[in-house]
Prior knowledge:
Blueprint: E1 2-6, E2 12-16, E3 28-36, H1 41-45, E4 56-57, E5 62-69, E6 81-84, E7 87-88, H2 94-97, H3 111-118, E8 124-125, E9 142-145, H4 148-151, E10 153-154, H5 161-165, H6 170-180, E11 188-192, H7 196-207, E12 212-217, H8 220-230, E13 233-236, H9 243-250, E14 258-261, H10 271-282, H11 291-299, E15 305-308, H12 320-325, E16 329-332, H13 341-349, E17 359-364, H14 368-376, E18 384-388
Parallel strand pairs: 11-12, 11-14, 12-13, 14-15, 15-16, 17-18
Antiparallel strand pairs: 1-2, 1-4, 3-5, 3-9, 3-18, 5-6, 6-10, 7-8
Amino acid sequence: MRALCxxxxxxxxxETVPDPSVVNPHDAVVAVRLTTTCGSDLHFIDGYLPGxxxxxxxxxxxxxxxxxxxxxVTHRGVGDRVVVPSFIGCGSCWFxxxxxxxxxxxxxxxAHLQRPVLGYPTAGIYGYTHPFGGYQGSHAQYVxxxxxxxxxxxxxxxxxxxxxxxxxxxxPTGLMGAEFCDISPGDTVAIWGSGGVGLMAxxxxxxxxAERVIVIDRYRERLALAHKHFDAETIDYxxxxxxxxxIAEMTGGRGPDACIDAVGMxxxxxxxxxxxxxVKQLLRLETDRATPLREALLACRKxxxxxxLGVYGLTxxxxxxxxxxxxxxxxxxxxxxxxxxxRIFDYIQQGDLDxxxxxxxxxxxxxxxxxxxxxxxxxxxxxxxxxxx
Length: 389
């Protein structure tokens, strides 16, 4: 089959690789119809997350059709059109039973690579380094899905592939982040980053009852999407002297009730602190440029919630005193997608959400290297590029 492979830092190629097959009796093989770029892929493309190997197929958001099932798959069948959450659950461990799917105890065969860093291993994820399981990813014609009965969700007929695609990761991540904020009627939520996850977090905050949503970014076309689709107030951080002061003025000096960091380790900013972080990151003295996280902590009102959706490694200069003295609550997770899929389908069917507006570039898989160049460098207003195998 054809697939997009990682061959080194910033070295991608579409190549012919072996087709996946049913390995365990609970597996399915899915023919990929659509797959999409994700900002978290950039972290290992740029070399900030270790654990990729030459020839690895990456990608973790996809919708497709089941073409083969193992002997113990009882609820899914050949021909089913399905969406698959990016983190792989087993459905029977303590964590899956408590809806903490990204913390599954069963699906990471390389748990020993995570224990020294995390203490306990996470679930496996498609196409996202060997410490996260070494599974081959979705930027391919076919992908193997373990525990198909709990990880393959049939897509209702009236929902398009383009809408269903983002139910695999971007929408549940954003919805989870908004849910972490414990939103009450009248609340103000500020969101750093207006990529796919940030936009879905803002849209979800509205669905959960936020009165005001403020989105911070430097890309005006993305800020325009936030204003258009969920009536966000926007801040271009390159056009103001201080994000914190601007937000304080917009909220009467109190600050937002909750803040969401939807950026992660390659965040941008202005001023000396951003320059310092950039130099340290380039020299591999730290993995993170955490400007958005620090700004969110400083801007949030006292007693508020900071929801962290961005992927981080080792963050330098973390302002713990801000957390303690302001009585802040930090909530974070990798996305527990299986918890949210059916609920998101309801939102789409009711007309409350159409995530397909994230698609700005629609390309064949053979053009995936170009698609990642557009996505990484924000060329041509790219928010998400999708690939059709």
